[in-house]
Amino acid sequence: MLRQVIGRHLVRQSTVKPFAQGLVWARAQSQAAPVQGQTQTQPPTIQAGDAAAKKPEEFKGQKKTVGKPRDSKARARRNYNQKVSEITQQIRRAADSASADLTEPIQILEEGLSYLREIQKAEGISEEELYRSFQVVILTIFRKAQADGANLGGKSVEDIFDMLVQYQVAHGYHFATMMARKLQSDSADYDGVLTLWVRYLEYSKLQPNQFQFFKCYHSKLNGIPGVSYYQNDLPNVVFFAYMQSLIQQEIKFDAEIASKVLQQEELPSLFQVGSTVVRLGILSSQEEFGKSFGDAIDQFNVESTDPNGPIVLKRINQYVERRYTMGVKKTYDQIIEAASRKGGIKIQEITLIRFMAAYIQLGEYDLCLDVFSNMVSHGVQQPSAHSWEMMLFALCNPQRVKSMEKNGRKLDMLARKLEQCIATMEANKLQFNAKMLSVVIGCYANLNLMDKVDQLMQGERLLGGKKLPIIQKGKNNYILGLIANGSVANAENKLQQFQAEDVSYIPSINVLNSFLKKYVDGKNFESAEKVLKYAKDNHVEYDLATYTILIDMHFKINREMGQSAKIETIFQLLSEATTNKDGTPSSIKLNEITLGSIIDGLCKDGSNIDAARTLYKYVSKNMKPTRESTTAMLSTELEFGSLDEAKKLFQMYTSNITNSSRIWNMMIKGLLKRDEEMALEFFHDFKKKSNAQCKPNFFTYYFLLEYFLRKDRREIVQALVDDINGGALTDLGDTLPKVLNSIKGQYEVRHDLVN
């Protein structure tokens, strides 16, 4: 049992309640019909105290167990070539002492690289050592070479770059810098940038093993003052140059051709491109970027978009995978405009259904309903059953219902809306089937209208005048509705009833996950174990949500024992989630939600911050840093870790993910607890850099006022109030006016703000 391997010595706490009746999950495999075609999924082996858990295959490329502290003795045993060390030290001394005249360090650098390449094989010098050893000194020379008045001994910056490429010690930073130089002049050389890009792609294939290190080394450069480089810089600059070239030549944009140019399926976002070209000094501001580039690519997207074509579906899938709602919304707006421009071309219902499904996957149920509403008002007078199913799922989804639970009037209106939808479907003579009946059962169950559910289940109420069978999905939705409304005991009883009535009924993994999460959240680990055993005995395959809950369970059990979660166990779970028993990749893909959950769990109390950093570093190198994982890591550094690391994460987030008021607010609020002066510096910087899309809002002023009122810092409070008096906010929200009203006697608050 999972409890035996998660925590063999866990003393049963009073918080661990025995499973109600204890029979639901004890059903033996022999009592259930095996599910054909499914591979049995073994429960993960989790040992709270086992530091020697097997490392998953995808982590074998690293030289040591990820997450374990580096052994100083092992570090001392690493062999460094004496000649490499002596030559780099000599070059460094010459480079550090040189001011404008770089003739000597450049000459020594070239001679040193040439000599070491000649003796490399005989001396047993690895590519990694040669590459690593020269990076800092090359950076010093390369930066000084670009300064005004630099004497390069008859060479140019381009000559130095060519030398670095020739001896295979060039870094992506050097390529990005050379591209930026070609774009910074008045006569920007777009073709020259594309030529450099081809050269980069060829260079990256010279020595794959060495170049793997090349790609990972980028984070080291960010620790050097004045140097900023990210792996996305190159494709971002190339995309910018490619698009500007099209604009210049009045050639229409084609997303497929652009993908081939960049050698990647997913095109960079406008925000990422704009951030890169501004940071590299190609353009002066995001506003300039928007005028010269952003509007043009939006226009290209509209003109070149086939509303019903494969490119649209591809974009939707990419944005859903990245959890980027605005990307889906922008694509939807573009196809509406494109259809309008192209003589009123009709957008097919199947395309709109894909948008509805995307919004459901992203948890944006109101946007899904908007698509359905627009579909009906723009020509699809009788939506298909599939469209209605999507619409009803979004209308009465448990999360949407939960958001209304404190407002009885809204719930009543929602119930009436559901009845109106069913009446409309019946009036349109929609062909109801068992699947549609299951969706309607789920809607009523989520609304906790169990009397109506029972009428449908017992055939007392017919949909479309037809008696329809109750399929497993209908039973699953009944149980899910009970769990969503907190009736776990009733859900357990209903499950027993369904199993007694139909020996072939096995609840879906979604149902099992819902039970599992309730038990884990309530620290009822004994019942959670029974769910896992039931899944194993009945061949119900785990999905990504299951593994996420298991990781959370691992954290909670270890905390109950007063221990820290083991990073090795997390990697083992990740390996099990993504790998089949035969070693082939599974259908499960790690996404940012899972990784954010893992990192957040590692850092809950700050005791596993090193493990969290290790995992985040792995994610950053092997995937893409995401909103969820980065904000989880940033929050942890702010509360328990290093403020310097927090600032680096903040810079990475605002430069490469998105620059939003939310991330600024998180940073400022987190800093208030550790360094209020730094928090104020960030606040003033926020105001200075604000624009229409990203600026201080009522949340910013609310938590700043709350903090400094508590500290009785009157001068700061009045300065914040003066900002608000002066019109800094167009929306005060619900809470801020109450704060202003409570202090109007002690501070000068504008009269109309509190009345």
Rg value: 30 Å
Strand content: under 5%
Distance between the termini: 63 Å
CATH topology of the domain at 307-395: Serine Threonine Protein Phosphatase 5, Tetratricopeptide repeat
Structural class: mainly alpha
Total strands: the figure is 0
Tell me the overall shape: globular
The main pleated sheet reads as: none
CATH architecture of the domain at 307-395: Alpha Horseshoe
Helix content: 55-70%
Region (Disordered): 33-79
Protein name: Mitochondrial 15S rRNA processing factor CCM1
Subcellular location: Mitochondrion
Pfam families: PPR (PF01535)
Structure summarized in a few sentences:
This protein has 38 helices and no strands.
Q: What do you see in this structure?
A:
The protein is an all-alpha fold. Among the domains are: 307-395, Serine Threonine Protein Phosphatase 5, Tetratricopeptide repeat; 671-755. The protein has 38 helices and no strands. The chain has helices at 2-6, 72-77, 82-97, 103-123, 127-145, 157-166, 172-184, 190-203, 208-216, 218-221, 233-249, 255-262, 270-279, 286-304, 310-321, 325-341, 349-361, 365-377, 385-395, 398-402, 408-427, 434-446, 450-457, 472-484, 488-501, 509-521, 525-537, 544-560, 567-578, 592-602, 609-622, 627-639, 643-656, 661-672, 676-689, 698-710, 714-725, 736-743. Helix 26 (509-521) runs parallel beside helix 28 (544-560), helix 28 (544-560) runs parallel beside helix 30 (592-602) and helix 34 runs antiparallel to helix 35. Residues 1-23, 27-77 and 209-220 have low confidence and may be disordered. It is found in: Mitochondrion.
